[in-house]
């Protein structure tokens, strides 16, 4: 071994070496050395001998062969290694050195290993090599590499690390200033976004934005949990008695117009089965409890004692209370307010602030209130005399004299329309090899090919993004490093008290290893990156559509959120697939359902959220402020302010108005929470972009259509698969 500083005295060699590397001579080693698996990003260099130095924990050996240039290489240090002199081994034993063997443990399937030490690359001899991505990581291009991988390879400046009995690893500089990891720290969703797609009925018809609960209100309402069982049992006893007497004594059975049977109507009042009476009693007990404690709530401040009525704690009291509230000429403000308060699920004490009911759960609650009100008023009618005018109380159901009851019927009609529009999708299997989706039949081979086509398109978009970003891992590599890792992700999340963002489940080290770096010498076309990422999002939407064990409608996918309020993406601890909590079902039960995506779809959705969206956030910048308030593109450019305000996404919190977030803050909240954001249209994904794929895929079907069209034939044979709008809005 020869020295790069031969011909100099020992003192001059030390001084010149230190000056060359911008160090003070005679730097002392750390007093308590320990091995470290990765290099410390803080630059430290120590002189050991003419041939050996320590750079950021790496042992650098200078090698000069006769007739060849001087090379400085990274070598593994062992106390008995013959590569080093005894004096060198003694000194090296006092330093905290990088354990090069750990790279095979941390990166078992990748030839490339990232290091943050720029000083190491300025000292060591480097070379340029080509690498391509595989499901396990990066592989070096050699003589046996297939052409398909060569075409996708990227060039890296590397430092080879040669092992005696293991494959060579290649260190590449991962400059933290070029990393997009800083964007992962921004998981802030500081305001809940109330959006019209799943709460437009509550916003537009019930105006729930004006209802604000105080801490005292929540404390009073929380008391319902203590008496819930007994309260429900008492109401069931009262309602059973009321129902039995009305059924036996009330003989006026007119046919009233019905929403479900508008042409024929149905007999009044409805016959109820025992399970239905039990259900209505249980759900209606919450409404009666609200009526009982209402004077203690902040909402009662605007009401005088004239509005108060004795608490409904008995059969007669319940009958009188409902009759008093619904008779013609009665003050209707209290009735309206009580029903509007019930839009919030204040019975759920697992959350700090009540969330809105789903359309179906609120519909069932209103069913209960209407049934209790109807039979209670009829019971009071049969015991006439206590309240002036109640001898004709049953006529409030036949005429429109009662404003509260008329309002209730109109509201219920709009609620039912909203619910039916939301759940009109259906699917069933047809033998031998087909599916009936929204009345249209599709073969399973059609679905398989469509899925494969959009998956291939996803990968194509990812390849195009590599012109702007380095270290863009494959979908499988990211999944193995995070979603499938036993240590990288917290799968034991409490779904009652969820974390604010899916990103918070993953440790920082794992995230740092999978996020891409931007290329410092390449100008990023933000519009092109936004287009590519949006297109990848549409691909994932179709993958979810075909694999979610009962396809989603487009609006159902549009409100998927990985952070913030109503977050509905979780990780299944056993399969490591993504779970989606949904209330959509084919039989319209409306009960919360957990749909587990298949592994391939889960990995692609996870990749889209972790990697693709990170590239998008870097491209549009931290000051992005163009997100529209009309997230769902529902106003169609209408200029009327009253119409526009009805559809705008609103923030709820401590703001003084509905428009209480500045554009940057609002845009950040949307991008950091909703899954399918389109930064080219500055809104959530538009249906036209989603449905456009039907004209492209499956490729075999559309190729036939194009060929037949050129020949002047019908685009599709009569017995072929129909072209339809799969995700009906």
From TrEMBL:
Highest taxon above the source species: Eukaryota
Pfam families: Sir1
UniProt xrefs under SUPFAM superfamilies: ORC1-binding domain
Domain Sir1 ORC-binding residue range list: 47-172
Protein's recorded name: Sir1 ORC-binding domain-containing protein
Species this protein is from: Naumovozyma castellii (Yeast)
The gene coding this protein: NCAS0E00120
């Amino acid at each position: 071994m020869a020295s790069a500083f031969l011909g100099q005295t020992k003192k001059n060699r030390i001084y010149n070496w230190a000056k060359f590397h911008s160090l003070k001579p005679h730097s002392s080693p750390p007093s308590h050395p320990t091995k470290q698996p990765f290099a410390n990003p803080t630059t430290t260099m120590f002189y050991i001998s003419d041939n050996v130095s320590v750079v950021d924990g790496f042992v650098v050996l200078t090698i000069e062969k006769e007739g060849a240039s001087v090379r400085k290489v990274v070598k593994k240090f062992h106390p008995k290694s013959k590569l080093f002199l005894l004096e060198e081994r003694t000194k090296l034993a006092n330093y905290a050195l990088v354990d090069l063997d750990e790279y095979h443990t941390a990166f078992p399937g990748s030839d490339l290993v990232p290091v943050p030490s720029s000083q190491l690359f300025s000292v060591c001899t480097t070379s340029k090599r080509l690498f391509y991505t595989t499901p396990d990581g990066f592989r070096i291009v050699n003589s046996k590499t297939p052409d398909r991988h060569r075409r996708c390879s990227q060039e890296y400046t590397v430092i080879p690390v040669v092992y005696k009995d293991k494959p060579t690893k290649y260190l590449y500089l991962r400059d933290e200033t070029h990393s997009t990891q800083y964007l992962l720290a921004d998981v802030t969703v500081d305001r809940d976004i109330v959006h019209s797609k799943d709460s437009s009925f509550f916003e537009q018809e019930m105006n729930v934005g004006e209802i604000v609960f105080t801490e005292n209100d929540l404390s009073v309402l929380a008391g319902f949990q203590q008496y819930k069982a007994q309260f429900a049992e008492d109401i069931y006893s009262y309602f059973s008695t009321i129902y039995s007497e009305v059924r036996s004594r009330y003989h006026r059975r007119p046919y009233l117009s019905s929403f479900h049977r508008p042409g024929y109507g149905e007999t009044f009042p409805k016959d109820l089965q025992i399970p239905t009476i039990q259900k209505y009693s249980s759900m209606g007990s919450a409404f009666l409890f609200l009526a009982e404690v209402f004077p203690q709530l902040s909402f009662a401040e605007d009401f005088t004692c004239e509005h108060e009525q004795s608490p409904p704690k008995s059969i007669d009291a319940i009958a009188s209370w409902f009759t008093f509230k619904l008779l013609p000429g009665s003050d209707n403000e209290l009735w309206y307010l009580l029903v509007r308060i019930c839009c919030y699920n204040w019975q759920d004490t697992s959350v700090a602030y009540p969330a809105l009911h789903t359309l179906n759960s609120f519909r069932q609650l209103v069913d209960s209130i209407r049934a209790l009100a109807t039979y209670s008023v009829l019971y009071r009618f049969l015991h006439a005399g206590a309240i002036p005018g109640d001898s004709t109380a049953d006529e409030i159901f036949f005429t429109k004299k009662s404003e509260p009851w008329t309002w209730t019927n109109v509201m219920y009609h709009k609620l039912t329309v909203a619910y039916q529009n939301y759940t009109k999708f259906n699917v069933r299997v047809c033998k031998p090899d087909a599916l009936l989706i929204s009345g249209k039949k599709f073969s399973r081979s059609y679905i398989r090919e469509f899925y494969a086509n959009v998956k291939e398109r996803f990968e194509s978009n990812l390849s195009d993004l590599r012109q702007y970003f380095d270290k863009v891992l494959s979908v499988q590599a990211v999944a193995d490093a995070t979603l499938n890792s036993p240590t990288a992700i917290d799968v034991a999340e409490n779904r009652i008290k969820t974390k604010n963002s899916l990103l918070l489940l993953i440790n920082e080290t794992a995230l740092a290893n999978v996020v891409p770096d931007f290329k410092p010498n390449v100008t990023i076309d933000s519009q092109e990156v936004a287009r590519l990422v949006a297109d990848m999002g549409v691909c994932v939407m179709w993958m979810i559509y075909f694999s979610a064990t009962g396809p989603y409608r487009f609006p159902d996918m549009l409100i998927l959120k990985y952070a913030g309020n109503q977050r509905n993406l979780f990780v299944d601890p056993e399969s490591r697939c993504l779970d989606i909590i949904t209330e959509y079902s084919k039989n319209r039960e409306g009960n919360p359902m957990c749909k587990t995506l298949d592994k391939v779809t889960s990995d692609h959705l996870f990749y889209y959220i972790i990697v693709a969206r990170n590239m998008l956030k870097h491209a549009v910048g931290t000051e992005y402020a163009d997100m529209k308030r009309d997230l769902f593109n529902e106003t169609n450019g209408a200029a009327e302010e009253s119409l526009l305000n009805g559809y705008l996404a609103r923030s709820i919190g401590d703001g003084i108005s509905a428009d209480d977030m500045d554009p940057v803050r609002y845009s950040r909240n949307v991008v950091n929470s909703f899954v399918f954001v389109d930064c080219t249209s500055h809104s959530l994904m538009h249906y036209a972009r989603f449905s456009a794929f039907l004209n492209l895929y499956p490729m075999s079907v559309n190729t036939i259509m194009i060929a037949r069209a050129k020949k002047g034939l019908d685009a599709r044979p009569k017995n072929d698969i129909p072209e339809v709008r799969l995700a009906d809005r």
